[in-house]
């Protein structure tokens, strides 16, 4: 199993010195990948429902100064040597398809092929409108089309595309990635699973979405079984699509019960957390990334070291 951690994108820890220190420490500690989130602007009045809180409110702590995702990813590529760089997730409708394909290809080229493209369709209507993107209600169609554009530009010697949102012929597109960056499809809904089955190299859920919870082993197992079925229906090998799982917290501070009455994944003591890792591996989960809660770089690094020493080393 591969392990990742969330690199700060907003707030005091995204200052250059703090951010670089955390990223370099994570690489030194042996993490396989780091993740960077995506908001370009934060509307001050949000009616859209945030998927990962019971109330639907965007957490107040996220209303902070922040970096643009792809520029931060490029900066982190220059500060590190081998750790993979994951967009977690890139809201695909935020950026025009040809521009985003070029930005990602450039980062991948300059980082010697370290980009993994985590993607989502987005949840914040106000932000998508502010960016001049296609209508929010069409974000699923936009996402699917833009993914097809990315692959066309990254793989074809004479790229051409004619869709609803993107049209081009007679383009020279280079550098191309040495290989198409792996695509991890975020989201827990039915459309997200279908998108994974059609386009994804891995499904990338967060277990605590109240509307589509995958917070217990039984629920996650059922979700993976559904993914395998949809992948086969899409004409692909069901085992060709991997699974990556994200946890915000683990251990004693996590509620013990999931919504289905089963034990909540990554709750309890360290022995329970290690047991969950082993159970997820048996389900075919290949990667897992963890959040941190500390407010200083020293605290974040200590939490990362604790996860490596107390969990990963003993799993």
> What is the structural class?
alpha/beta
Enumerate the spans where pLDDT stays under 50 for 5 or more consecutive residues.
none
Total number of domains: 1
Radius of gyration: 19 Å
CATH level-3 fold name: TIM Barrel
Helix residue percentage: 25-40%
Distance between the termini: 10 Å
Count of beta strands: 10
Question: What order do the helices and strands follow?
Answer: EHEHEHEHHEEEHEHEHEH
- Main β sheet profile: 8 strands, parallel, barrel
* Shape designation: globular
CATH superfamily: Luciferase-like domain
Average pLDDT, rounded to a whole number, is: 96
CATH class: Alpha Beta
Percentage of residues in strands: 5-15%
CATH architectural type:
Alpha-Beta Barrel
